[in-house]
């Protein structure tokens, strides 16, 4: 992967190098010779216009400890993004000259947080594409808390300040189901519908697999719940709201019977049936701060437990964390309850014993998986969208601030540029970069100039005003030689 | 004024023939509205227009002279390009850019108050949400014998917000044009077919009269005329009908541009300044494009931070053409207009820009910049006589001249 990127970069550099002299030649050509140059001229022009229109956008985060979300921590590594995608993540990365470089030395880099439920982060209504307010306070505070993508209503979209383009990544990924003892008839109805859907799916698959010519028309789907078919076919996830042990067991049994993996929202007593849920392949969206005493009339275990997430995770249940309140995206919210304190919600699960990695997963890759966008976001990996947050400490620590947020390879939040948290422990520039900002161009010089001369000298020479004119003349001469 | 009459009678007695309306105004200070200040200036007005204007001009004998006091200042008449002139702003939510606002105009007694506040021209916008029609240019108090309506159509109003319906409304303009185009093409095809048929039939026919009759039946091609609405849509696309786009917040600008896509439209922006307006976010882009922005002369605060912002000055500095309208669209608002502008000047807006934002830029928005809005030779003589510099709080409007005639304050001179 690395070499191929290097090649494309090199190619771009070569093209640039070739393009410019060609253009210079063309402009310098005498009118008499113009017919020879004509083609080159046009080519040069084409190249120029191409550059303006579809210029490759390079962005590099240099230094910093990359908590990729895949289990790996790459210390003092470099991430290179091209047109909003991660193309390189590792060491000795070649950075194109025109790349925008962010020096994250001394900071941590995490995948952007994915809020599995939110309201108000997009400053508009349910139709994000058409109603988003990319300058809204909600979006700013969301980014300041590290959220770069969020589910709102039936959509999952990105938080991109100042842009309304390509925000929505997916929609309608959940099929809501009810399977509760309180309505036995509803349970029976759901089972019946699932039976019908399964039968339909079987005939449909058989019909599709049949290669004979006289296989007839596609089987009719009248009376079939296509949402259930999508769930059985694995195209959608079924979501149940359930907190009680008995209900959770019922759901686990139902899902094992029909062969699909449930998503459970709530799951207060899930820790008491963790094994069953694990076997059913469930994902639980829980709120670790939730507190509810158990039903006193029962002898068995029940109620909430701070260990809920830990126990579920140990049984193979994927855990996603949602905030207690999805709204309150203002400065007036209560820490750990509103959506802009999602990492704190996750750290409550850690308090109950969940590993740090699983806690991070619960607000990044697991929600991304639920929304069906784990191929784009949730971890820092080559090929994925360049969405990351750069923090001054562990993102699951309350004391930590998000310093920068990057979405689609462009900076959308800078703590020091916004009013909200700029005054709290302001980022001193001198403290930031011990090795100074690594300029894309300088790194090459550093590699070539091994003669022991400090690189600073080059920088001084660049400032033409300070060097006497005579010296300049000498330099020019030596260059000519 | 008495001495003027005396001069006039003298003039007629001496038998010097002069056009009835000729008048020379001599003032120590004249703000032309183009950024210039003239000292010891003379404005020569004839038949409602400024003939010449300049410093220390000699005045021909016999021309009546209005000699102003040293403290008095002449400025162009103020233009309120975005007003309902005291009538209701309520209306339907519709897409009717062909409707003219003047058809809903009914003069009220409040108009005199607008004139007293120095407003000589008003862009009277149509009531309603969406795209309710085109603004008409009216005289709050016209000179004797003249109509209220100066210009029937100036700009179409579009009130938009961040929603699918509003974006679709913008798109519908261009969809309607496309529809009409295909319809017109079909109309042409139909005619061509009939014409071909008639030509062939005429060829076969030997009788000359019958031949003629067959051809006459088809007649000449008349292109399909768009209805008034489609015509307005087409005028919007061609730029003949500029559009004033009213935004509720900065984000809507992005949605508006997204809906517009690459389609053409000559638009200015109405950016209503509320306490926590977030328009600063689009300042650079709007400024760079040199777009005209219609704002209220008000200091707002940055959303969230409560940091004070002077958005009119910021947009002007960024390169936008600034138009300032009264903070409240009422006679009271008109009266306080100048005072509100003073508050943004004190917070950093350039004084000449501010004057232009109340005069020439307003005229430009109404498409009347070459005839109104500033004191220049050849333009209409709409001017105000103030008791001091235009943005001194103590300055009062002492007289208002419209079309070369005083409509207010004549007696005091």
Structure commentary:
The complex is a heterodimer of chains A (481) and B (413). Chain A has 481 residues and is α/β, with parallel strands linked by helices. Chain A contains 16 helices and 19 strands. In chain A, the strands form 4 sheets. A 6-stranded mixed sheet of chain A has the order 3-2-7-17-18-19, covered by helices on one side. In chain A, strands 12-13-14-15-16 form a 5-stranded parallel sheet. In chain A, strands 5-4-1-6 form a 4-stranded mixed sheet, with no helix packed on it. In chain A, α1 packs across α2, α5 packs across α6 and α10 packs antiparallel against α11. The longest helix of chain A is centred in the first third of the chain and has 27 residues. Chain B is an alpha/beta fold and 413 residues long. Helix content of chain B is 33%, strand content 24%. Chain B is built from 11 helices and 21 strands. In chain B, β20 and β21 form a beta hairpin. Classes of the chains: A alpha/beta (481), B alpha/beta (413).
Structure, briefly:
Chain A has 481 residues and is of the alpha/beta class. Helices cover 36% and strands 17% of the residues of chain A. Chain A is globular.
């Amino acid at each position: 992967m690395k070499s191929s990127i290097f090649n494309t970069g090199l190619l771009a550099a070569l093209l640039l190098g070739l393009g410019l002299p060609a253009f210079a030649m063309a402009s310098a050509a005498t009118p008499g010779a113009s017919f020879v140059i004509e083609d080159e001229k046009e080519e040069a022009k084409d190249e120029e216009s191409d550059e303006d229109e579809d210029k490759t956008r390079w962005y590099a985060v240099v230094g910093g400890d990359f908590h990729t979300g895949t289990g790996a921590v790459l210390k003092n590594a470099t991430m290179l993004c091209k047109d909003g995608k991660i193309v390189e993540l590792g060491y000795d990365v070649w950075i194109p000259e025109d790349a925008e470089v962010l020096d994250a030395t001394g900071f941590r880099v995490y995948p952007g947080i994915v809020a599995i439920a939110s309201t108000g982060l997009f400053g508009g209504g349910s139709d994000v594409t058409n109603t988003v307010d990319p300058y809204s306070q909600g979006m700013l505070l969301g980014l300041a808390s590290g959220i770069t993508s969020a589910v709102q209503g039936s959509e999952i979209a990105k938080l991109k300040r100042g842009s309304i383009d390509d925000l929505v990544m997916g929609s309608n990924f959940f099929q809501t189901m009810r399977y509760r003892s309180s309505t036995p008839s509803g349970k029976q109805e759901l089972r019946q519908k699932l039976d019908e859907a399964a039968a339909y799916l079987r005939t449909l698959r058989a019909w599709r697999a049949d290669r004979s010519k006289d296989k007839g028309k596609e089987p009719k789907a009248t009376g079939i719940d296509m949402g259930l078919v999508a769930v059985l076919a694995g195209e959608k996830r079924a979501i149940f709201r359930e907190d009680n042990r008995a209900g959770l067991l019922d759901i686990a049994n139902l899902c094992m019977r029909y062969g699909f993996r449930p998503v459970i929202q709530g799951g207060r007593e899930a820790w008491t049936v963790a094994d069953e849920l694990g076997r059913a392949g469930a994902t639980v969206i829980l709120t670790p701060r939730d507190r509810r005493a158990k039903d006193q009339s029962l002898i068995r275990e029940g109620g909430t437990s701070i260990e809920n997430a830990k126990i579920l995770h140990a049984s193979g249940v994927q855990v996603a964390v949602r905030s207690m309140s999805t709204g309150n995206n203002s400065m007036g919210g209560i820490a750990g309850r509103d959506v802009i304190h999602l990492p704190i919600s996750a750290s409550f699960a850690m308090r109950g014993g969940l590993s740090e990695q699983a806690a991070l997963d619960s607000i990044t890759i697991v929600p991304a998986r639920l929304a069906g966008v784990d191929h784009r976001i949730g971890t820092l990996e080559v090929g994925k969208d360049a969405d990351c947050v750069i923090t001054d400490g562990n993102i699951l620590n309350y004391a930590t601030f998000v310093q920068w947020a990057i979405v689609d390879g462009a900076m959308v939040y800078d703590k020091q540029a916004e009013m909200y948290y700029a005054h709290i422990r302001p980022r001193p520039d001198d403290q930031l970069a011990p090795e100074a900002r690594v300029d894309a161009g300088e790194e090459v010089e550093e590699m070539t100039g091994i003669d022991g001369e400090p690189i600073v000298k080059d920088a001084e020479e660049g400032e033409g005003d300070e060097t006497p004119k005579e010296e300049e003349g000498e330099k020019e001469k030596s260059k000519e030689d | 004024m008495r001495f003027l009459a005396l001069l006039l009678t003298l003039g007629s007695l001496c038998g010097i023939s002069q056009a009835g309306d000729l008048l020379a105004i001599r003032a120590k200070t004249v703000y032309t509205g183009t950024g210039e200040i003239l000292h010891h200036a003379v404005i020569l007005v004839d038949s409602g227009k400024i003939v010449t204007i300049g410093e220390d001009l000699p005045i021909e004998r016999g021309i009546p002279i209005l000699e102003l006091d040293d403290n008095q200042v002449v400025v162009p008449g103020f233009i309120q390009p975005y007003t309902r002139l005291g009538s209701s702003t309520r209306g339907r939510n519709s897409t009717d850019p062909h409707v003219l606002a003047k058809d809903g105009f009914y003069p009220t007694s409040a108009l005199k108050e607008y004139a007293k506040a120095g407003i000589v021209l008003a862009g009277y916008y149509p009531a309603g949400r969406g795209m309710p029609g085109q603004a008409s240019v009216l005289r709050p108090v016209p000179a004797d014998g003249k109509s209220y309506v100066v210009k029937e159509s100036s700009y179409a109003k579009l009130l938009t917000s961040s929603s699918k319906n509003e974006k679709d409304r913008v798109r519908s303009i261009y969809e309607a044009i496309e529809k009409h185009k295909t319809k017109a093409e079909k109309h042409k095809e139909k005619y061509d077919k009939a014409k071909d048929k008639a030509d062939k039939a005429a060829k076969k026919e030997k009788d000359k009269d019958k031949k003629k009759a067959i051809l006459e039946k088809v007649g000449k091609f008349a292109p399909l005329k768009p209805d008034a609405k489609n015509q307005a849509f087409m005028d919007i696309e061609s730029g003949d009908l500029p559009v004033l786009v009213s935004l509720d917040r900065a984000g809507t600008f992005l949605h508006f541009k997204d809906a517009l896509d690459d389609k053409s439209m000559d638009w200015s922006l109405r950016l209503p300044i509320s306490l926590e307006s977030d328009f600063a976010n689009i300042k650079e882009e709007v400024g760079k494009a040199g777009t005209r922005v219609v704002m209220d002369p008000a200091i707002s605060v940055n959303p969230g931070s409560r940091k004070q912002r002077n958005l009119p000055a910021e947009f002007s500095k960024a390169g936008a053409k600034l138009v300032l309208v009264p903070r409240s669209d009422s006679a009271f608002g008109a009266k306080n207009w100048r005072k509100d502008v003073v508050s943004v000047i004190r917070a950093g807006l350039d004084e000449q820009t501010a004057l232009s934002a109340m005069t020439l830029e307003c005229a430009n928005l109404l498409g009347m910049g070459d005839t109104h809005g500033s004191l220049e030779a050849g333009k209409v003589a709409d001017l105000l006589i103030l008791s001091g510099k235009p943005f001194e709080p103590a300055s009062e409007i002492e007289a208002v001249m419209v079309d070369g005639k005083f409509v207010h304050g004549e007696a005091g001179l």
